[in-house]
Design a protein that fits this description.
eight-stranded mixed β-sheet; 21 helices; Rossmann fold; globular
């Protein structure tokens, strides 16, 4: 019995009814998942990987799909084998959450906002395992300890919105593991998380799999995560399985062109060693690529000094300010014309607030922001309007930053109209050339944002930021939500524009491999301060601050022979940035290790 696979997917076909007729989301896909094994299903958005997992849970019907053919054999605890494709919903209710656990991609939507964490954790235990209230609560506490949540007793009484993204994701994992399922399906469980939290959650899932013998079906588009987790890999493309093999075979000897292209598009940490300047990635199947290094100039465009931004925390009956969030604390840096400075760090370290403060989208407490020799912080509304022509921003979520009711032509032309730079047919021509510039067909000008994929929307956001020929673009996590190949194209596009137009970027990201690829200078942020700053080669190849070293250790590398073990990861929980009104932080003091490479000597709390 032991060598029998826990789940066998045979010839699965799933179709969706659309207004243009039926569409096949998955065509004839087959693979097995064995006990104690992690099978990674990889592919890009729309390749059918999530649809396969939702079919196993029989949740695909609730999303407008139907299983059109094939068998989904599942070996149950009692030794019976059942075909889930034809199982009744009653027996599915017993299996779901008990014998098959699922970790969804978005922890906030997977948790119920009106129930406490404790209530949601104990529900499955009471339904499937028949435990009483007290037993269920004890088991819930034990689960929270297993997923290493600090102060688990307090967390049981909290609501999902009171937890950070990484904590919520751990609660979802604890819920999926509550009944010790035979099969755990993890759908992109770490996409939205920071490097350090991702590393901990991957190590946690690996440990729990070893301890409980659970089979894991892991769905992701991140090849570095695959290298870290997988025993076997199934590659999907447009609803078909194109390749399957052990993790070593797939990484070291890929057979299918699509797998090769997917691996070529992954920026690997360490690839830029020995190169002084950033250069575009070589993509497969793209002719005539310009791969020259981008040097930039020594001329200073932006100089930020002692920037401090705090937010008030109101409380009490009269809503007085009772404390302050120290979001950005005494930050200084310079950006040269035609160069990229990247700010890296975890969620909540203050990197996005820094970018917004430079553009005065949030008003800093103190400091100076010199743009071309003039302090932006002293500008009135009219001068600010003028200078924003030269400083533009690309936001993290392109869907939220585009207007759903306007066609793309109008969204890209809006800045030009706003500044009175073009009208009539000249406006049309300018927008058309911007579409060419970001490699989108001109026919898309009549489309709405919802008709585009994530990568295409991000290109529209870039086209709109370029409309005014700015000198500086602040890119806030501009590629974090994109598929590997789309991310590579967008990064290359940004570097091509930098080479052609002499643009400067302030690039905000938590993806170290991407940062290594695009940066001239790198600043590492922790708790509102820059703890280390210098040329990219210095910071990556000779990290000096303890936090930078921990961050580098956590990055998964797209090579199955360089896996991280749990003992490599020893992160300290991040202290709170909220302080009382009487708190006086020390100024940031730096030691210059080598010319241009600075390390914070003030106590950073790490």
């Amino acid at each position: 019995m032991l060598d029998q696979p826990i789940a066998q997917i045979k010839g699965l076909r799933v179709k969706f009814q659309t207004k243009d007729g039926p569409v096949l989301g998955v065509k004839d896909v087959s693979f097995d998942v064995n006990p104690g094994e992690t099978v990674c299903v990889v592919g890009e958005s729309g390749s059918g990987k999530s649809v396969s997992s939702l079919s196993l849970m029989r949740l695909v019907e609730f999303g407008g799909g139907e299983i059109d053919g094939g068998e989904l054999m599942f070996s149950r605890r009692d030794g019976d084998t059942i075909d889930l494709a034809n199982a009744k919903q009653e027996s599915m209710k017993e299996i779901r959450g008990d014998e098959i656990g699922m970790i969804f991609q978005e922890p906030m939507t997977a948790l119920n906002p009106v129930f406490t964490v404790g209530r949601q954790l104990t529900e499955g235990l009471r339904v499937h395992k028949g435990l009483n209230k007290k037993q269920a609560e004890e088991r819930a506490l034990e689960l929270l300890r297993q997923v290493r949540i600090p102060e688990p007793e307090r967390r049981l009484g909290q609501y999902p919105h009171e937890l950070s993204g990484g904590m919520r994701q751990r609660v979802v994992i604890a819920m999926a593991l509550a009944c010790e399922p035979r099969l755990l399906i993890a759908d992109e469980p770490t996409t939205a998380l920071d490097v350090t939290i991702q590393a901990e959650i991957l190590a946690l899932m690996d440990r729990l799999k070893r301890e409980t013998g659970t089979a894991v079906m892991f769905i992701t588009h991140d090849m570095a995560v695959v290298a870290q987790m997988a025993d076997r890999v199934v590659v999907m493309f447009r609803g078909n399985k194109v390749e399957e093999g052990t993790v070593e075979e797939i990484f070291e000897n890929p057979q299918h062109d699509y797998t090769k292209a997917l691996l070529a598009a992954v920026p690997k940490l360490g690839e830029m060693r020995g190169k002084a300047y950033p250069e575009p990635m070589k993509l497969m199947g793209v002719e005539g690529q310009n791969l020259d290094p981008i040097k930039g100039t020594d001329e200073v465009l932006l100089k930020v000094e002692n920037l401090t931004t705090r937010f008030d925390v109101k409380g009490g009956f009269l809503r007085r300010t009772v404390a302050q969030v120290h979001a950005v604390e005494d930050v200084s840096f310079t950006i040269n014309k035609g160069q990229t400075l990247s700010l890296v760090g975890e969620s909540g370290c203050g990197k996005s607030t820094t970018g917004r403060a430079v553009l005065r989208l949030v008003d800093p407490q103190s400091g100076t922001v010199n743009f071309e020799g003039r302090d932006v912080l002293g500008f009135d509304a009219g001068e600010m309007h003028k200078v924003r022509q030269d400083m533009q921003m690309i936001f993290q979520d392109p869907f939220a930053s585009l207007n759903p009711q306007m066609v793309l032509m109008d969204q890209v032309s809006e800045p030009l109209r706003n500044y009175g730079l073009a009208s009539g047919s000249e406006l049309q021509d300018r927008v058309a050339s911007l579409f060419d510039r970001v490699h989108l067909p001109r026919s898309f000008m009549r489309r709405y944002p919802h008709e585009m994929s994530g990568g295409q929307r991000q290109r529209i956001a870039i086209a709109r930021a370029l409309a005014l020929n700015p000198k500086l673009i602040i890119a806030d996590e501009a590629v974090s939500a994109l598929d590997v190949s789309v991310q590579a194209q967008v990064l290359n596009l940004m570097m091509e524009l930098q080479a052609d137009l002499g643009l400067s970027f302030l690039f905000i990201s938590h993806d170290m491999a991407v940062v290594e690829r695009v940066s001239h200078q790198v600043g590492v942020m922790y708790l509102g301060r820059i703890v280390e700053m210098g040329p990219r080669a210095q910071v990556f190849e000779n990290p000096q601050h303890a936090y930078t070293q921990a961050l580098m250790k956590a990055v998964p590398i797209a090579d199955p022979r360089q896996r991280k073990s749990e003992k490599d990861l020893n992160f300290k929980p991040i202290p709170s940035p909220i302080h009382g009104l009487d708190y006086k932080p020390e100024p940031s003091e730096y030691l210059e290790v080598t010319p241009g490479h600075f390390v914070l000597t003030t106590d950073s709390g790490y």
